[in-house]
Amino acid sequence: MKKILFLFVLLLAVSAQAQEPAKAQQVKYTVKGVSKENGKMVYLEDKLTSKLVDSVTVAQGKFVFKGQADKDAIFAITFDPKDWQSWHTLFFNDGKTISVNMNDSTLKGSPLNERLAYYNKEILGLPSSYYPEYKYKMTKKMFEEERESLLPAALIVEGQRTFGSKGLLRMLDEKPAYAQHPKVKQYAEGIKRMATATIAVSSGRTDKQKAADRDAKAAFIGQQFTDFEMVDTLGNTHKISEYVGKGHWVLVDFWASWCGPCLREMPNVVAAYEKYHTKGLDIVGVSLDGNRIPWVKAIIKQNMPWVHLSDLKGRESLVSKVYKIDAIPDNLLIDPQGKIVARELYGEALHEKLKEIFGE
User: Do 239 and 164 share a structural domain?
Assistant: First the structure.
């Protein structure tokens, strides 16, 4: 009997061990960097956990990071980890020594990391800052050419901006090599959760109330726009009817400088404006900011060359009540006669709708 009991306990132990997730292989990393920013702190960040792994000071034009971490972990080297728009040099921890030049954002290492450095610079660097269509082209090229490598995992956010949430999930369903990376799995789960949740502009609503809000928002489609009055960045008062229903298609874009998803979506909106403005598309930005200074700074930083309005009442903005805005980003696409034809167009969906209207 004791023997049987011992075997039973042993089987349970073996079974429990088999069910435990396998621990990731640990490999050493060495980063040798150069920079002209003597005395400045350089940070090493884990992009999966968004935690700082290490920090060093540039001394005599050089710095070094050494340590051990999960194989193929994605790291970022940056001077300012708190600013998501500051430059981040990315690399995979594949056990190969990394040499990085922070002066010109170049990197030497394994073939995978050198290709990552190239795409990182082309997609997030100066070419894309001035030419959003170039960014779109390069992101598509990367996802097509690097399908059987891990590389797209490091720039998975750009995949969502380019292909849209649904488009990216469809690509992951085809099981490319990068789909198995922990960063991609984490990101895909976040997209799925966001499909049923939004960034709340007001809180305390039940699921039933949220569903009613979604229905109320959708009810605007097919209706004439409702006029409202706000001020521009100089304090001059305008009505939305000054811009809508005047013979042009108008995208009314609801956003705020404090809204991270709004800022991440903005390059896509800029690209749409630059491609279709000469064909008849106008944009009116309506901000839910409560302070003029960050609102104006964000307009300049994001390079948004269209009309901007706000009542500077933040989350209590009048427009939230007029158009039942419970989350941002949000938008309305209004036809030349002033009828609302679509709402909540983001990523690739925005470009597909505009292509349908204006052609290539």
Answer: no
